[in-house]
Amino acid sequence: MDFSHILNDIVAQILLILMALGLIVLCVYYGVVFLKLSVKIKQKNKNEGLKNEDLPSVSVVLVSHNSSYFLKENLVYILEQDYPDFEVVVVDYLSGDDTHYVLKLLQENYPKLKIVQFKNDVNLYTGKKYPLSIGIQSAKNDMIVLTEPNCKPGLQWLRGLMEDYKRGRTDIVLGYCKMETKKNLLGSLQQYDNLLYSASYLSAALSRRPFTGNGRNLSYGRDYFFRKGAFIKHYAVRDGADDMFVNQNATKRNTEVSLRKEGYVTVAAARNFSLWRQERQHRCVTYTYHSFGQKLRRALPGIGVVLFYGAAVALLVMGLFPWQILAGLLVIKLAWQIVTFAQLEKAFGEKNLCYAAPFFEIYFMLSNTIMAIFPLKYKKYSK
Which CATH number fits domain 54-287: 3.90.550.10, 3.90.660.10, 3.90.79.10, 3.40.50.2300? Predict the structure, then answer.
């Protein structure tokens, strides 16, 4: 193969540099986020758990709005926790279904269930920040654990989370939410998106650069929450009860990550594409409030995909570089991606995603671009 023409072709040189840069960015990202995180998870699950006398009292807080179906399915798993001292605070916010009756029936059998009911809309803003703050205020214990009605934890969930608190040092603990498995394309897309998003923020926190959390599995101190002003700084922003509070208050010293499998919760998958798209848009709304560095780190994988594939296609179409070498570089990229992603999904207990990861990666690059162009249209209140 003759490469001498490249020395005199500035276009070919630029495209080769861009493709190489994209390949390096992606390979480093796969190694740091996928492989490093999977090793940490395996190490964490070899450690022994805490004894009962070392576990703090806990208040689990969740907000429910027309979620009676999920409460029937999941709340009993929270109430049956294998944990020495805890309570469960459910804020029934403006529900028009049979949520109130479901909660009352459960309360008859579980005295540790506390119900906070809103019959009138006294929220000056929209979203769940106000009802959630009232739920936290109503909790009797300082250690708060947040989740949502569509989440099902294991019976060792609270133990798994509390083991990552270091007394006197930890204010926030970030947990993992496992997506419910569904054997169809929509289910696989949701699993991949959830795993990639979770790996991103958990890996950043492990690297002492926390930038967000997930309110489906999140813990912080009650006193710490109000000492930091609760949600007052961003009440006017509808979303971000989890993201914005963590983003504004998590530091490299006060934040820990729960990687023990007992500390996971399983979240129900969205029933259709439209609902799932709305969930993703809600998650992205508050990203504009992140720092430039956080935005850049989050955008790097997408930038790497555009640079690698865009430059490779241009080189191929223009005939500026041998297709055999381009194919070889593609094989290297795909092999490293599949191997590292396979380790990640295995560590988190997910299945059958690694071989589809290269295709899903391209899909989400396009999908995220479309979501940025067409922003979310809000309703008065949604869960």
Answer: 3.90.550.10
